[in-house]
Design brief:
The complex is a heterodimer. By secondary structure, chain A is of the alpha/beta class. Chain A contains eleven helices and eleven strands. Classes of the chains: A alpha/beta, B alpha/beta. At the A-B interface, helix 5, helix 6, helix 7, helix 8 and helix 9 of A face helix 9, helix 10 and helix 12 of B.
């Protein structure tokens, strides 16, 4: 069953220079107990997408259209605002990017835990402290450290605190925005393992937003690849990584350093940079950087709809087998434009 | 290698920082000491690119600053072409700067927003007294080298008009315009997106072939180090725990810390091990005073001797592969 279901969501930033179409007509499903990854480069709209689900978006951002269903209730619909208010944070919680900096430096961690549990959860002080002890145990921090201030924690520990806060009110869904980006590899692995453990023991569903394909490969079952405000490919991690359908995903695979590959392997960049979302190109947004683009690409390829299959938004999706072979050749990418 | 002259040599270099973390420590003067770099020795030979790998707080950036003569070592000395860099005075410092350059981590912060790209690139030439008639040709060379393409297109632009990847190419160009002998690259691609990273690394590798400089490449990402460096030095809390060719370090890690690092590096494949890491706890307090091995308390194979005696960095096999551990 779909726990969370997003239909045709568009989120635009309205600024003095025009409208930035950060999220454009995106559809996505999250099943119960699933770990879904959203991967993309900076500026592709993945953070805006994650934030719109919980409603914590910047004042200049406007949800233009679309629906977000949580267990069959449209939480964007104003008539459901009471339900939506209860869903946000209690049922869907959010770990912001660099959560370590989102802790208040002048309050002890215990007070910050109390704030969530008492204000949002309706606990009394004693219950809140008991729950905090339990949560710290769960995320693997010594309970004594509740007395400490944020600056006394290391980066990985702060991330654990942020996770403890996110699961404090027993949510069904956690949305984590780049939860391991600023961390060292060993700490990164520990945090990813923690997510996995919590997912199993608390029956959570998790959306993990990251720019790192390896993190997706390690943790997630399903992945959505975003480019320039759109989801361009979606499917099981195994099939997206091994048999990418969209040229952008093929290019990303080439550009990624792989520890286990042979020394002779050559990293192939994707030439150019993502388009400006103030004036996105008409048609396929990747066409300027795509080595396989043709006239057809000036028209918009079919959008990805919610589907359990492995799908991509590309005119040449059906030729992907041949394109993959060509994409493996570095010369394909270098001589382009 | 033994009869070659190293381009850079560190002999028992240490850098200690006093820190006072609270009022009591401030007023009593009893301050804890962070041993950011603790008795490190190594040599780098001409043409070599050495990766310095370690977690944040292990002292890798301090090491880079020491090599650049931006910090004075607390103990030990650093030799560049057999001269002690800390004894340089006046003109010698300028001469040193003509040979050693730095590539910064964050291209958005490293470039003066009020300078055009042309002025940014000419700055080192002016301040290091390169004759004016050489400026244009050096500029053209370096722009080709870093593949920034069309000269006229970029030179009159300001940093805010360029993307992150282009800015990092400018940072790279600024370091390479004087054809240095030695380059310190401090996490040069960690701020960039995956799809542009590869381009910067390729430009770095190609420039290395053309100018033939030696370099240290500071990073916490083993996969990137593997792509750029032939040799890798692994640091843990200010000390070197392993030193060997990158292939050796990746395929056959010796030190238990390196083993944990290698197995923690995420790889873009679905079928990968989800085994728990062979390492416990967190990076400990850097101010603690260690008698034995610094890694002992997190080490899965630690024994009594590890807490009593600090292991030396010793040659462990025939492939010039060094490690500091009692049990290898």
């Amino acid at each position: 069953m779909n726990l969370l279901s997003i239909h045709n969501l568009s989120v635009h930033y309205i600024g003095s220079q025009g409208t930035t179409k950060a999220v454009d007509d995106v559809s996505l499903n999250l099943k119960e107990g699933e770990l879904l990854g959203i991967v993309g480069e900076s500026g592709c709209g993945k953070t805006t997408l994650a934030r719109s689900i919980t409603g914590v978006i910047a004042p200049s951002a406007k949800i233009i259209s679309g629906e977000i269903f949580f267990q069959n209730t449209d939480i964007l619909n104003p008539t459901n605002s009471t339900i939506a208010h209860n869903v946000k944070w209690k049922k869907i919680s959010f770990i912001p990017q660099s959560a370590m900096n989102s802790l208040d430096p002048v309050y002890k961690i215990r007070n910050q835990m109390r704030e969530i549990l008492m204000v949002r959860g309706g606990f009394n002080k004693k219950q809140a402290d008991e729950k905090s002890n339990y949560l710290f145990d769960l995320v693997g921090i010594d309970v004594k450290r509740l007395r400490d201030y944020p600056h006394q924690f290391s980066g990985g520990m702060k991330q654990r605190v942020a996770i403890a806060m996110a699961i404090a009110l027993d949510p069904k869904i956690i949305i984590a925005d780049e939860p391991v980006t600023a961390l060292d590899v060993i700490v990164q692995r520990q945090i990813l393992d923690l997510f996995d453990k919590l997912k199993k023991s608390l029956n959570l569903s998790i959306i993990l937003v990251t720019h790192d394909i390896s993190v997706i490969a390690y943790s997630c079952q399903k992945v959505a690849v975003m480019y320039a405000g759109e989801i361009i490919e979606m499917g099981s991690v195994k099939s997206v990584l091994e048999k990418p359908l969209h040229p952008y995903t093929m290019g990303l695979n080439n550009a990624f350093p792989d520890l286990l590959s042979k020394k002779s392997d050559y990293l192939v960049p994707i030439e150019g940079s993502p388009p400006n979302l103030l004036n996105p190109p008409i048609g396929c947004r990747f066409k300027m950087r795509c080595p396989f683009s043709q006239d057809q690409c000036n028209n918009k390829p079919e959008k990805i709809n919610n589907s359990d299959r492995h799908v991509a938004s590309c005119w040449r999706e059906s030729e992907s087998d041949q394109l993959r072979i060509r994409a493996n050749e570095p010369s394909t990418w270098i001589n382009n434009g | 290698m033994a009869n070659l002259k190293p381009i850079l040599e560190l002999k028992n270099v240490s850098k200690f920082y006093d820190i006072s973390r609270n009022v009591k420590e401030y007023f009593t003067g009893i301050k804890p000491i962070v041993k950011a770099v603790d008795n490190i020795s190594f040599k780098i030979f001409s043409g070599e690119t050495v990766g310095i790998l370690g977690e944040s707080g292990c002292g890798k950036t301090t090491l880079g600053k020491l090599i650049l003569n931006l910090l004075q070592p607390s103990k030990g000395s650093i030799y560049f072409l057999s001269n002690d860099i800390n004894n340089y005075k006046g003109e010698q410092i300028k001469e040193f700067k003509k040979n050693v350059q730095l590539i910064f981590q964050n291209p958005y912060d490293a470039l003066n927003p009020r300078f055009t790209i042309k002025n940014i690139l000419l700055e080192p030439l002016k301040s290091l007294d390169f004759p004016i008639d050489q400026h244009q040709s050096l500029l053209e060379n370096v722009m080709n080298l870093v593949k920034l393409g069309n000269l006229d297109e970029y030179l009159d632009k300001y940093p805010h008009e360029l993307s992150g990847g282009q800015l990092q190419r400018v940072v790279l160009a600024r370091a390479l315009i004087i054809n240095p002998l030695f380059v310190v690259a401090d996490e040069p691609v960690s701020m960039l997106d995956v799809s542009v990273r590869a381009g910067i690394l390729n430009a770095f590798n190609e420039a290395k072939k053309k100018i033939n400089f030696s370099a240290i490449y500071i990073s916490h990402d083993l996969a990137l180090v593997k792509y750029v460096c032939e040799r890798t030095i692994v640091m843990y809390l200010g000390t070197i725990v392993e030193d060997g060719s990158t292939d050796e370090v990746v395929r056959n890690p010796l030190h238990p810390y390196t083993k944990a690092l290698v197995s923690a590096v995420p790889i873009p494949h679905v079928n990968q091990s989800h085994e728990p890491l062979p390492i416990k706890g967190h990076v400990p307090d850097a101010t603690a005073n260690y008698i034995g091995c610094k890694f002992a308390e997190r080490c899965p194979m630690a024994q009594t001797i590890c807490f009593e005696k600090n292991p030396d960095l010793e040659l462990k096999n025939h492939n010039d592969h060094f490690a500091a551990c009692h049990f290898i």
